[in-house]
Amino acid sequence: MATIGELSDFSVADLLTMISGRKRSGRLVVKTGGDEVTLYFEDGSLVRVTSGDIALRIGRMLVRQGLIDTPRLLEALHLQAERGRDAPIGEVLMRKGWITESDLQHCLEEQSIEVLSRVMSSGPGLFTFEAGLKVDGGAEITPLEPMALLKIAEERTAALATLQEQLPNHLTPIFLNLPPTALAEVQLSFGAPEGIVLNVLRTGPKTYPELSAHSALDDLTLGVAVITLLEEGVIATTAQLGSGGRQLANSFAD
Question: Is residue 215 very low, low, confident or very high in pLDDT (cuts 50, 70, 90)?
Answer without folding.
Answer: confident
